[in-house]
Amino acid sequence: MAFALRKRGPSTFERASDGSMTLIEHVRELRDRLFRASLAIVAGLILGFFLAQPAFDLLKEPYCSLPGARDALGNCHQFLQLSPADGFILKLKLALWIGLIAGAPVWLYQLWAFIAPGLHRHERKWAYVFVAIAAPLFAGGAVLAYLVVDKGLAFLLEAGVTGLSTQLEVTRYISFVTNMILLFGVAFEFPLILLMLNFTGVASARRLLSWWRAVIFISFAFAAIATPDPGPFGMTLLALSLSLLYFVAVGVAFINDKRRGRGKEVYAGLDDDEVSPLEHDPEPVEAGQRVDVSAPVGVPEPIAPPAPIERRYDDMT
To answer: Which residues contact 176 (CB under 8 A, 6 or more apart)?
Structure first.
């Protein structure tokens, strides 16, 4: 997105002769695209305001599936609300989340339309591929978190002193569930980092595979620290999922290296401190003429000393 400026007045810039956009035009384009993205989010917010109640019923299902969470009639126990405004504020939060998801095609397109003109053709191609992979990975992590959040709740409530019949506070419960969903979704984007390193030529598939011990250890450490659920079930499942995705990414990296012909270089298979062989066939050099050392060598003429410089009496003053 290179631009050229040519000043015409004290605060006016006109389009350059090469057709490139000026700075003011870039700012105006950014303003217009942000305005369109905001309209899409606001429209999604209005739609989410009507869908907030079904979304809340869906998010409370993990709690209602716990033993003892329903009464004799099969109705789920109500959550505890500490402030009169908590229910309304929670509805606005859920509506905003729904608005961001519903308006994602529009505001993501506006963001991409602003960035894409500054990218090369092959960069845009790989951006399409990575975005197409990132969305299903995030959705898969979110679905997995929703399926295992009830296990984490059961462990937390059973390990506590109050038991499963505890009445939970509604805003903290929704924050717990949404944090689990967001954490699993973001963690599932980890293979994309490895694929970016391989596709850009920073690390080969063999080098990525050599990191498997460190990756597995970091996966378990990350799952143990970042998971809101301190129980072993959610932590282990997240760590195993990250490890599986790592090996899948390494397999894709091997396919990419084979397609590009990597690993066939002369230095392939050598250690960092090992010297690679030189494939060089030197040309034969003929012997020079023999020098007769018995022949007299000319004596150079002696160099005459320089003539003395005459000094006058005023040179010493």
So the answer is: 149, 153, 228
Rounded to 10 deg, the angle between the 86-102 and 170-187 helix axes is: 20
Helix (H) or strand (E) holding 264: none
Encoded amino acid at 244, one letter = L
9-42 pLDDT, tens digit per residue, is: 444 344 444 456 788 888 888 888 889 889 988 9
Q: What is the percentage of the chain residues whose pLDDT exceeds 90?
A: 2
Most confident of 147-161, 207-221, 251-265: 207-221
How many other C-beta atoms can be found within 10 angstroms of the C-beta atom of residue 185? 19
DSSP assignment letter at 13: B
Q: For residue 183, give both structure tokens.
A: 């954490």
Rounded to an integer, what distance in angstroms lies between the CA atom of residue 87 and that of residue 58? 16
| C-beta atoms surrounding 95 within 10 Å | 20
Task: List for the chain the helix, strand, coil content (%; round to 5).
Answer: 60, 0, 35
The span from the CA of 189 to the CA of 197, in Å, is: 14
Please tell me whether residue 223 adopts helix, strand or coil conformation: helix
> pTM of this prediction?
0.65
12: left (phi over 0), alpha (psi -120 to 50) or beta: beta
SS3 state of residue 76:
strand
Buried b (16+ CB within 10 A) or exposed e, 201-225: eebbbeebbeeeeebbebbbebbee
Dihedral of alpha carbons 48, 50, 52, 54, sign = negative
Q: What is the pLDDT of residue 6?
A: 41
Tell me if 257 sits within 8 A of 263, measured CB to CB.
yes
264, two tokens? 């066939």
Q: What is the mean pLDDT of the chain?
A: 76
**Averaged pLDDT for residues 143-148:** 83
